[in-house]
Amino acid sequence: MEKEQSRILIVDDDPAVLTTARLFLKQRFSYVHTLSDLNTLTKVMTESSFDVVLLDMNYSRGENDGVEGLKLIEQIIRDHPQTEVIPITAYGEIDLAVEALKRGARDFITKPWQNEKLYATIANLLNLKKKQNGVSVLRNVNQPLIGGSLETHMIGACRSFNQMLQMIEKVAPTDANVLILGENGSGKELVARVLHQQSDRCDKPFIKIDLGSLVDSLFESELFGHAKGAFTDAQNEKEGKLQMANGGTLFLDEIGNISLSQQAKLLSVLQDRAVTKVGDNISVPLDIRIISATHADLQEMINQGDFRQDFLYRINTIEIQVPSLRQRVEDVPLLAQYYLNLFKNKYGKKSLKVTAEAIKVLQQYPWPGNIRELSHVIERTVILADHLVIRPADLALMPSHKENRELDLNIEDMEKTLILKALEKNNGNMTHASRDLGIDRQALYRRLEKYGL
Ligand SMILES: Nc1ncnc2c1ncn2[C@@H]1O[C@H](COP(=O)(O)OP(=O)(O)OP(=O)(O)O)[C@@H](O)[C@H]1O
User: Fold this and answer.
1) Distance CA 213, CA 207 (A)
2) Quick one: CA dihedral 94, 99, 100, 105, positive or negative?
3) Is 41 exposed, middle or buried (0-12, 13-18, 19+ CB in 10 A)?
């Protein structure tokens, strides 16, 4: 069973309860932490973020009328607004459960619980939270969102980012297949997840297939599934990812990485809207929305004979271009601050601040790894920071950046260098160079004129 990417904390002073809950929930969720000592709750929650806290309402030390639990619910909701609290009450404590709901909990669970009921309660709440997070992405574009899991927060305020959000808002509720284009680490997967969250399919599965890392021999059984005995290693029947995504969204990451024969197989499944497991003859109807992503130039691949035009038509009803971080220099301070807050909390360095000079250096860096690289740089810097302030010298940037700083390049110099590199790489071909740079031909001509190139 695929685990849900969610972080769960269970707080109870009974070690037996903690062990049982942990063993069960670890099979379903990516991260489960248990805590029996209430005194360390604040510290644990400051160091890590959690999506859901299961909180026992009765502690053997002190009051056992739930007062302490109610105070904790209020405290958690106040200090960690992204976290959901599920109080655990004893059978018959209806008044206490109602009071907990009044203080901000959105559901509760009674002891002794049934495991499936426990799972359903958490899963429902996470779904609700995802829907609301999705909406907040679009509503809070002009203010950094602090806390929560990295997967659900999309930060930005610049023009190209807002244009992309408007596109997402229009396209998400439709069933149109979407192709997301953009450099590595620029946020393509995040866009795919937001599209799913904002669609009517949001309470159905979002299944990702990383086609870039899927070896040839596993392609069919991974996507289509296989019957028992279909081949030597097929000891059990296996459901394919297409069927797992039924009713929901299938995210095909790195679509440019699959061979022509694999494209043909996938195309015929998408055309027939039905899938048959390898070694089986039962065809299962499919109702899936396809979202694909790539950093490759698929048109160029078609020209080279490496990509099927009919397959592209099938997957790119709508194209969304994710801007690179170089094209969003204005957003760098916002994103840097967001990640700084996140990692300050995670590593218990709440007083850490960043100087304006350090932000300027971050804005000048070309970010070949885009937002993923920015988050890594900030995380590394926070971990290594000895002082209360992050200065330019504290930023552990890649060597290329150090060279640039020695040359004292500014953003215009950086842009000029990039344009020259793109032209050199593409033997002066303006169409290809502009595509590499993520701008249109006219914009490239304007810049050539501006820099006298
Ligand atoms: N607008 C954003 N605000 C905050 N974080 C973001 C934003 N866009 C991307 N990220 C974060 O940057 C990291 C990389 O994003 P993501 O995996 O979506 O990129 P990608 O384009 O799919 O990368 P790849 O091409 O390598 O698969 C993730 O941790 C993601 O949460």
Assistant:
1) 15
2) positive
3) middle
Q: How far is the CA of 447 from the centre of ligand 1 (A)?
A: 28
- For residue 338, which atom of ligand 1 is closest to its CA? 4
Convert 136-169 to b/e letters by CB count within 10 Å (16 or more is b).
Answer: bbbeebeebbeebbeebbbbbbbebbeebbebbe
pLDDT, averaged per 10 consecutive residues of the chain (453 residues), comes to 84 88 90 90 86 85 71 87 86 78 83 86 82 44 31 74 89 95 94 91 91 83 86 80 94 94 93 90 93 95 95 95 94 89 87 91 93 93 90 76 47 79 79 82 79 73
Tell me which residues have their CB closer than 6 angstroms to ligand 1: 150-151, 153-156, 182, 184-190, 253, 293, 295, 335, 371-372, 375
**Predicted local confidence at residue 147, as pLDDT:** 28
- ipTM entry: 0.99
Distance 194 CA to ligand 1 centre (A): 12
Residue linked to tokens 């006298």? 452
The per-residue pLDDT for 307 is 96
Pocket test for ligand 1, best of 5, 140, 190 (most atoms within 8 A of CB): 190
Ligand 1: which of 153, 161, 186, 343 to mutate, most ligand atoms within 8 Å of CB?
186
Distance in Å, CA 91 to ligand 1 centroid = 44
Residue 236 confidence (pLDDT)? 81
Note the pLDDT of residue 132: 57
Rg for the chain, CA atoms, rounded = 25
Which of 158, 178, 372, 373 best tests ligand 1's pocket when mutated (most atoms within 8 Å of CB)?
372
